[in-house]
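Entry
Fold in token form

___
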Amino acid sequence: MTGFNSPSIVRKDIVHFATSNAEKAVEARSILADFGITPIVLKVDVPEPLVVDLSELVTAKAVEAYRKLRIPIFVEHGGLYIAALNDQPGCLSKLVFDALRGKICTMILPGVTRRAEARSAIAYCDGKKIHVFEGAISGTISDAPRGTRDYYYDSIFVPDGQAKTYAEMSIDEKSSLSHVRTAYESFAKYLTNPSKTRRV
């Protein structure tokens, strides 16, 4: 990739995370700790392009984060894809949820499928290349928001096989089964053994 400096020495147990979201930082620490990796969180506001492809969005964010900080860095972004809404809001889930909140639940008419998929993508820029790792989990949209944690769409998404929304779960409970965990697991495997990891 042109326009990048040579990467710094990369340690397998430490990695830098660019985010201004405290909840994302907690989630990253909770999951990566299981792999002996400590994310160093750098509070950086990275512009989010208005694109519909999740991989394209995190790639753009990782490039911008690297240009600002000039060190190997990763970013994470998620989206909620609701079948009844033509797989929207997708990458724009935060903007839509901040505007509509629980009204999203009532936008799905009676008798219409409430199926949805939560997706996460991590993009890591090592100074030469962008590596993307993705995770997804299927579930349903609840009839109404439930739970005390006000984090994106956590209060309206119920993963398959569970009775609770993400927001009704503890951080550790959510981190043990979420789509975000799947993405971080792939990322952690890459960090610990990059030559044997298949990337997206």
Summary: The beta strands are 14-18, 38-42, 73-82, 88-90, 115-125, 130-141, 157-159. The CA atoms of residues 33 and 39 lie 9 Å apart.
